[in-house]
Write a structure and sequence with these properties.
binds adenosine monophosphate; 10 helices; about 40% helix; alpha/beta
């Protein structure tokens, strides 16, 4: 595995691979790798000749008072995991490599961002689409792999690739969970022992609430989620049911929906979601 920290060198490698007719798969991450990240690598390795992973904690997507400074980092461990999982090139640039000075151009996400994390983290998705535009230009991937765990991010990134004509296919990979259902996340290390014990209730409540939505109403589903979470020390940031991937309020005729929640614990804000369909045959099958 090659470890590269400059855009110039990355482009050199990519150009050489492209000349040989190799396809490039790209897995952008912020590091502190877990099985969720590695499942994206696995998909890329299966579908593409060369897999590039980036590890970059992007300051532009963190708001003031968010956890940029204390975001978990362990590059040595990440290098070893990436190598074992089949990454060919690890791109690990400094902040100054991607943003040498205050950028004269940034990208703004204008659709699918006024709800969920977009509403509670103003500017977050502008930071995401700006860094991805830079990374897509450097890596020039045939396919880019994203986790459904960040379903709003996938919806926004599909908009980015479509609107700015990035010639990369966006592939969504299902959420990888702990045995008790908690979605794997780099931020889980910041849960206290007690918080870790109760955190799986988020996924459990999302599942039961989606069933209540199908059989009863949105109001009953949201009420149920809040009740399930009421005994937990974390505070609900949002719980919402929307169409997916448009992220609009659903009408009766909309069948592909997302139920998504964010819960704030003492030192970690966790997000999770289920994409489900209201059509009878496959009702509530998680996608
Ligand atoms: P992050 O390092 O948190 O920015 O995540 C990098 C990529 O890994 C994103 O596309 C995430 O959606 C994806 N990812 C994070 N956690 C999981 C998970 N539990 N299952 C699947 N993909 C994940």
């Amino acid at each position: 595995m090659n470890i590269i920290s400059t855009a110039r060198e990355m482009k050199k490698y990519i150009n050489a691979y492209k000349k040989q007719g190799k396809t490039i798969g790209f897995v952008p991450t912020m590091g502190f790798l877990h099985e969720g990240h590695l499942s994206l690598v696995d998909k890329s390795v299966n579908q593409c000749d060369i897999t590039v992973m980036s590890i970059f904690v992007n300051p532009l997507q963190f708001g003031p008072g968010e956890d940029f400074d204390r975001y978990p980092r362990d590059i040595e461990r990440d290098i070893s995991l990436a190598e074992k999982s089949g990454v060919d090139i690890l791109f690990n640039p400094d902040v100054t490599e991607l943003y040498p000075k205050d950028p004269s151009v940034t990208v703004k996400a204008v659709d699918r961002t006024d709800v969920l994390c977009g509403a509670s983290r103003p500017g977050h998705f502008d930071g995401v689409v700006t860094v991805l535009s830079i990374l897509f230009n450097i890596v020039d991937p045939d396919k880019s792999f994203f986790g459904q765990k960040d379903a709003q991010q996938v919806a926004v990134v599909e908009g980015l690739a479509g609107s700015l004509h990035f010639p990369t296919e966006i592939i969504t990979v299902k959420t990888i969970r702990e045995d008790d259902g908690l979605a794997k996340s780099s931020r889980n290390v910041y849960l206290s022992d007690d918080e870790r014990k109760v955190a799986p209730v988020i996924y459990k409540a999302l599942k039961s609430s989606s069933e209540i939505y199908i059989n009863d109403s949105r109001k009953a589903a949201i009420k149920h989620f809040k009740q399930e979470l009421s005994a937990v020390s974390g505070e609900i940031d949002y719980i919402e049911i929307l169409t997916y991937p448009e992220l609009k309020a659903p009408s009766e005729s909309d069948t592909r929906l997302i139920i998504a929640a964010a819960v704030r614990f003492e030192r970690a804000r966790l997000i999770d979601n289920i994409i489900f369909t209201t059509e009878e045959e496959s009702a509530c099958s998680e996608q």
